[in-house]
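Hi X.,

You mentioned you wanted examples for the new student's onboarding notes, showing what a folding record looks like when two proteins sit in one file. Here is a clean example. The first protein comes first, with its sequence line followed by its structure tokens.
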Amino acid sequence: MRRLVVVAVVATAAAIAIAMAIRPLEIRHPASGAAADLVARVERIEGHVRRSTPDLRSALTPIDLRQDDRVVSGDVLETDGRSRTALRLKDGTSLRLDGGARARMLSSTIIELTNGAVYIDSVRNDGGIEVRTPLGTARDVGTQFEVRVSHTLLRVRVRSGSVELRHRDRSASALAGTELVLADGEISRRAITPFGPEWEWTASVAPRFDIDGRPLASFIDHLCREHGWTVHYEDDELARRSWTIILHGSVRGLPPTEALEVALATSGLEHRFDGGDLSIYRSPNAR
């Protein structure tokens, strides 16, 4: 709840000055009234997401999470099997919860995940986001990564950057393209790709990208970041020109590849995929 205090100050008999003092924004838990720190804002919701806030008796009072809601320290977010949500943390980092997840937002840099999966797309080069689970803790170093936990298994998949996984007195680091699995007290690793079906849930709940008035290159970069693709332009001149091509209209509701095809077609360009490599080239008819 926002509280605004306006104080009128009388100066002298000859003149009256009005001074306004505004207290710093203070967010309070609706049930307990105790001050709480702002952690994030809700950017997108797919399906049904619940938020529980501690009350005076430390019980949890569940309410429906809504678009643009503010999430504060101590809030517990839960998604059912068909729901997902995306939050924007205070520093601009994107945090997304998959279906069947339960996470307590301890602060803007610490998330306690007890079930399901969370995806972090960090904007900070120095990282600093920590995901705590009953089995171990994952800490990023400026990266994109997923943490998925169940009763017996913890999995960390790194899309870019690096992540450190800590379990009791042991730790393991993973670079981009690596998956760490903690099971039965042992940590194993394997190579993975940054694209593919296992990542697609993160893009399905990503904040929407409005193409109208935006450069083509900006839209391509957005798609590549969300889907783990690597873009290759036909030549340097086309790469530079893609920043001067301004898109209009909307591709909302289209699958990513169809949206890309529409945006390119209106620009006289075409594309092809080779695994996760996206090639952009001039259409033969437009040469």
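Then the second protein repeats the pattern, sequence line and then tokens:
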Amino acid sequence: MIKSIQKLGPGLLFAGTAIGVSHLVQSTRAGADFGFGLLWALLLVNFFKYPFFQFGPRFALATGESLLSGYAKLGKAVIVTYFILSLATMFTIQTAVTIVTAGIAVELFGISKNIVYWGIAITFICSSMLLFGRYGLLDRGMKIIILVLSVSTIIAAFLAFDQSKEIYWTQVLPSSTTGFAFLIAFMGWMPGPLDISVWHSLWSLEKKKRMKNLTLNNSLFDFNVGFITTIVLGICFVFLGTMVMYGTGNSFSSSGGAFAKQLIALYTTTLGNGTYLLIGIAAFATMFSTTLTTLDASPRAMAKTAEILQLPKAISSYFFWIIVLALGTIAIFFFLLSNMGTLVQVATILSFLTAPFYGLMNYLLVSGKHMPKKHQPNKMMRVWSIFGLVFLTGFTIWYLSTLVI
């Protein structure tokens, strides 16, 4: 049992990254605005994204290389496209998750009401943890964070159950432009953006360095544990949003601090003031884990991409990219703090629009000549992947057509 737990790592980092804005913000908002009406979207997008996420650790353990090295083998245009997409989205994503984390810290700890100070402090703490502890600290710490997060969220969902409240299971497809934009944003980061598969492949290789006997089956089991955790907790947050907020007429603020205060206050009003600490810990653990893992993953991926593209050595450094991302995040804090809702919406929609690219590249890589045949996905997984590509591409085209119209 202990050995099995020790082999867990990258899958929990995946969960820590995925369970953040998509769950605490988007899933709760889905429950508040639509009740259980968007459960179909949560389950479908998880189902169709599963193969593409799984291809990250599968490729890494089968070949000893990251997906980024695989992308380079598919052609220089592919790795350059990845570099440009990541550069365009990494600051928005990091700022969005840090703002939410800082807002919750303001409400939970009460040391300072200035969300900018908290954002800077959290960015500094996470950067220091990663620069000095690197992957080993991230790997060990995430086991604790995910445990705290899972237990507190499930308890909160159980306490929120109201037998007197009528539950409507009717599934809905938003018809308004605003509603449809939210649906796309909701699915964009549910359970997370598809480029997490790239990060997962890098984490898997780091884990392999520390645990020589790590096998492909171990890695896939680890991934499945993390993936199932994200689905269960996603449903819990929709449940919480439905039980606590649906039908109340309340709407969320787009300001980071106001959102956090509103979120915790609404929960504690319904669940009782005694649950304040529980809700606060669950919310903070959720967002801190996401902030920490995204601050590690983007620089790790950008450094490797720069190395593959043979950019100057200084630019191919993990240290360089983590400093650039930290400073960029802090800079955005000073200019776009009041637009948390917009930042989250933009980041999540961009993630959905880029999903077909990552899905197709991952599929071509694991089913082609660069993957050992014995580790290639079976026929069922290939069919599953094709349907997933149709689903992601179809919704992307549909969304873009609504913008044109």
